Amino acid sequence: MSDLADLPELLPDRPDAAGLPRHDVADLALAAQGRARIEWADRAMPVLRQIRERFAAERPFDAVRIAACMHVTTESANLMRALAAGGAQVTLCASNPLSTQDDTAAALVAEYGIATFARNGIDRDGYYAHIDAALDAEPHYVFDDGCDLVNILHTERTDVLGGVRGGCEETTTGVIRLRQMAAAGALRFPVVAVNDTDTKHMFDNRYGTGQSTLDAIFRATNTLLAGRTVVVAGYGYCGRGVASRAKGMGAAVIVTEIDPTKALDAAMDGFRVMPMSAAAPLGDVFITVTGNRDVVRREHFVVMRDGAMLANSGHFDIEIDITALAELAVEGPRRVRPSTDEYVLADGRRLLLLAEGRLVNLAAAEGHPAAVMDMSFADQALTAQWLHTAGQELAPGVYDVPTAIDKDVARMKIDTMGIEIDTLTPAQVEYLSSWEHGS
Ligand SMILES: NC(=O)c1ccc[n+]([C@@H]2O[C@H](COP(=O)([O-])OP(=O)(O)OC[C@H]3O[C@@H](n4cnc5c(N)ncnc54)[C@H](O)[C@@H]3O)[C@@H](O)[C@H]2O)c1
Asked: Would strands 89-94 and 285-288 be described as parallel, antiparallel, or unpaired?
């Protein structure tokens, strides 16, 4: 663990001379630009805005400290605003070194008074020093996206572990890690798997990742997808979104899977399904969204076409074996465009790695559109409130978000979209709650 004091421009403990909260961000001069972008995102987040307004009136988090380790984007900024409006003392650090929007981080500090530790492109030591700094706030509740903060809390920062009453986890990979911690008896407080709500993974993972992953590939390479072959590794919620969007852009899509049911799902959705070894020589663009490691590796690189593009939208930068790629390359990595590095193999073929193998949609684009994060972060906000009330009785473990919260968020979202739906008639209620009626 590196010492936060090593970071060059870190300002002293809160509040500093200018009255700002504790922070380490790239450039406070970007604050006005960041505020404009946060407010733009807010326009597309009507559900979270309603919750913020209610929190401001009810102040459910007075005297509560929350530490969040999340992608520092305009959308998470609006979640932090909602929690702060509810009275929470919020500290935010980044859950990925390449996803931080420096202007957003600056605005959080200078415009909204929220302690923030995030710089785009920070190295590994700085990344963990920022998590350390967030934990220095001695949080009552923690929000995580990938389980790095919870992991540090249970290993290196056990000094503040006892004060933590509960947490929320945002993504699939984090939930998997938490369940492993719980099974091993290591998890010391209740954590709610916000990822697992319908209003999160059915929309954020699917439509958000689907759109923003392609957005990132276009921004990085300006490539044409029509007529090209796109290989999508993993047909979970994210993979289904990516595959269907790529198909919609005119690509021939191949899916690779390890789960027979998911493979069947992909096949019946009209995609070709095959192992990566068979797909590797066919693909023009490879997109990994598995949450697993070494999905694209040496044996695949050596048979790929000249100019093949490699992008990862899974949580960690281990889905594409970058070490093997670097070992195979006789030249590179050479940055040929922003977020695009070229590796030249011995026979002259060039492979293009996007965003250094990190979450491409956050590193090379802006992450998911605000309209979809509206639901994920509404889930987070309402779950935090529930944890702070009903959740006080929970034993350590991983919990589902109460169904009522999931349904409330869906209801609020369709209301804001002007969508009306039917309600059950009394006869339908009676029918659905009885078992006597047969054919
Ligand atoms: N980019 C983003 O903004 C974003 C958003 C949400 C989730 N995620 C991350 O994306 C990843 C996938 O999330 P999800 O919700 O789709 O998970 P999921 O569990 O629904 O799907 C993952 C799929 O990958 C398959 N898989 C596992 N190993 C494989 C392998 N070696 N080859 C081929 N397929 C394999 C699994 O069988 C499963 O069907 C996770 O790491 C998650 O944290 C990223």
From this structure: unpaired
Write out the two tokens for 357.
């193998």
288 touches ligand 1 (CB under 6 Å)? no
Distance of alpha carbon 161 from alpha carbon 215, whole angstroms:
39
pTM equals 0.90
Please give the number of the atom of ligand 1 that sits closest to the Cα of 240: 16
**Among the listed residues 319, 367, 436, the one whose alpha carbon sits nearest the alpha carbon of residue 75:** 367
Q: Which residues in 293-377 belong to E strands, given as ranges?
A: 309-312, 331-337, 340-344, 350-354
Q: Are 235 and 288 in contact (CB under 8 A)?
A: no
What is the CB neighbour count within 10 angstroms for residue 353?
24
Per-residue pLDDT at 6: 45
For ligand 1, what atom is nearest to the CA of residue 361? 1
Q: Please state whether beta strands 350-354 and 340-344 pair in parallel, antiparallel, or not at all (unpaired).
A: antiparallel
Q: Is the CB of 262 under 6 A from ligand 1?
A: yes
pLDDT in tens, 326-385: 999 999 999 999 999 999 999 999 999 999 999 999 999 999 999 999 999 999 999 999
The reply to whether ligand 1 has any atom less than 6 angstroms from the CB of 116 is no
Q: Are 306 and 342 in contact (CB under 8 A)?
A: no
H/E element, 416? helix 403-416
Distances, alpha carbon 348 to alpha carbons 262, 290, 304, 306, 342, in Å: 36, 30, 12, 8, 11
Query: Above 90 in pLDDT, residue 318?
Result: yes
CA–CA dist 399, 402 (Å, integer): 9
